[in-house]
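Subject: two folds for Thursday's group meeting

Dear M.,

Sorry for the delay on this. The cluster queue was jammed most of the week, so I only got both jobs back this morning. I'm pasting them in the order they finished. Each block is the input sequence followed by the predicted structure tokens. Could you check whether the formatting survives your parser before we put anything on slides? The first protein is the one we discussed after the seminar.
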Amino acid sequence: MNNIPEVKLGLIAVSRDCFPITLSQTRRGALAAACGQKGISIYEAKTTVENEKDMLASVEEVRQQGCNALVVFLGNFGPETPETLIARKFCGPVMFAAAAEDTGENLINGRGDAYCGMLNCSYNLGLRKIKAIIPEYPVGTPEDIAVMIGDFIPVARAILGLQCLKIITFGPRPQDFFACNAPIKGLYDIGVEIEENSELDLLVSFRSHKDDKRIDGVAGDMAAELGAGNNFPDFLPRLAQFELTLLDWAEAHKGARQYVAFADKCWPAFPQEFGFVPCYVNSRLAGRGMPVSCEVDIYGALSEYIGACISQDAVTLLDINNSVPKDLWEAEIKGKYPYSLQDVFMGFHCGNTPICKLRKEKNTALKFQLIQNRTLENGGTPDFTRGTLEGDMEAGNITFFRLHGGPDGTLQSYIAQGEILNVATKSFGGIGVFAIPEMGRFYRHVLVAKHYPHHGGVVFGHHGKSLFSLFDYLGVPDIAFNQPKGMLYRTENPFA
């Protein structure tokens, strides 16, 4: 995935000058060694920070080493002003953690008081309004803090990605499709750039790629990827031409930014003018860390990109689409899985989920968009409504989430961990049977009550911890989740 950043960590130890500096230095070395044992590459800065000049020297040292994320380590109490100014001068994601005491046999000259120092560090960060990542329990042994650093890496990767992200749209956003009409001010609030274009701009660029010599190579790659699911071999050059169009546009228009995500209009005029539906191409780019959201869903593209940074894996964007029929639940889920009928639903989209996340043994294939075929081709032999990638999704853990611009322009978010069940959907599109504990209550008191659209980002695996840390760092005021039974939502009727 060359469209997401690589995290290069630096480690700076700080020392309050009334404590032995050797305490911080020795503990810093032990922490660097613990990171190495866990396979975490981290540059150990030689400058230990006691004052503001040390602070400037340490930041310059890690910059010279190419570090773009930083761990500030309180090996003892730490100097409050210099240690917090590290985060301001560094201009990248910074995590703060503090050393636990080493042994009960050395609590006179060997006591560092970093437990106390962490309080003043946090207080000073607040005074200066400096953002930083502070773990859930930020004090520990070298081995403990190495685990915290491992948790910090995906969050840092997402922060770095957002700092350099441009979302490119081709619209306008569909009429009467208000899921895609969220205010974009929230993007600027978190430093994301946006470039909005017309469908005509995209069409002109697509036509200019008609005789591109690279088309045969891309079509061949598509054929190899689809294998037995290549239902329309003659059709692949159209899709290859479009893929090249998007990739070239990204390169030509990223400007001062390093990373790109797209939010494209895909109906109703698109199939007739371009000659296909773009779902399969969208799936391929999402699999490479450059998501292309459907229906000009800008915050959907943002969420997908965040998911790619957090997981370093393919992501998708799905409709929270339809309930599971009771007879299907009784036949395939009841007694086999610990989920009620209200805990399960089907996540669906026309065909934008990367092929690596679909069950190839369940007829995964290049197909046509059934709904558009009914509307635009009168249900006849499909031509320009071809281009979806369809199949049931692989069973496994997922995190369903969204970062969204609310009606008043402020950011809001939700995170819900669950799984895709190994249950045949008996339906069409890229689709799966999803299970999220207490989904019925979450659906009513978060998704409905807080006015979320039907699109949600899906990251494969349980990544709620990283997503929560990221959204908290970004200052998102509302981070909702699927609350367990007995923990009432604010709008939930306690007598129901």
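Second protein, same layout:
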Amino acid sequence: MPLIALSNVTKAYPPRSKGAPPTVAVDDVSLEIEEGDVHAIIGYSGAGKSTLVRLINALERPTGGRVTVAGRDLVGLDERALRQVRRGIGMIFQQFNLFESKTVWGNVEFPLKVAGIPRAEHQKRISDLLHFVGLVDQAHAYVDQLSGGQKQRVGIARALATSPQILLADEATSALDPETTRDVLGLLRRVNTEFGVTVVVITHEMDVVRSIANRVSVMEGGRIVEQGEVFDVFSAPRTEAARRFVAGVVPTVPDADTLATLRSRHPGRIVSFSFADGGTDQSAIFLELNRRGVGFELIHGGIEDIRGRTFGTITLALTGDDASIDEALDRLTAVATIVKAA
């Protein structure tokens, strides 16, 4: 049984004005997240991903469908039972949501007090968490004395205070610079591997997905339009929404404008080849072209690596007589994927 399961879930809000239709934020979504996974939910603003998170932690109730967390159907639970479920779900936010009037220690201690955990256990728990996130020296500092990255580390420590099974990260790195983002994502990966916490990352950044997630769900218009292993979605996106996200971070086949620019700069026939883990490598293509006496220049693209698995595209400008190029390409169709030839 998955740790988190949504089955045909819909969330609609009342009309904003008389005679207007309801606003559907989540539309017939089914999703399963396994225990111990790092699952990213990606979408542009308004896609419904933040509403989806609020359904998982029971801050919103679905209009229709079923939400199950750790084997419990949230739809039928009263508020007291929902509070127990939420205790097993930690959450970190884009804007940190820390108490400015409390120290780092006080922020991490707050959920322990709310959960009724005996005070005798606070000292060790908070100390362990501050060591984990690297903030022992700032234990008695106030929030306004911290950098953005330090604030998010406090947020992570606070979210872990009650030893949750699940950590929800809602755009948790959007307000951070690239170097700090890498540090925070590395910390979230450690939360998953060292504590066994299931992490659900909400983001609009495909780089975040590539850095941390095992699986990804792509949302658009309140629906999940594509989901699967991160490698599969990156290397062979099936929907236009997924292709738009992937195109921003992965070298792809040049579009019409880029192709026109490349053609103006490079003589010869322009051909793009795609690669996926376990398929033909570049050396096989280069060897075949050399064997046929065809010159080549790499003019676009690149190869990506996701946890030891490679994929990508390269675009070459081929020079030589037409017959030799045709013969080489005919031969290469048996061992490589030719995406575009122009």
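Two things I noticed about the second structure. The longest strand covers residues 295-306. The two ends are 50 Å apart (CA to CA).

Cheers,
T.
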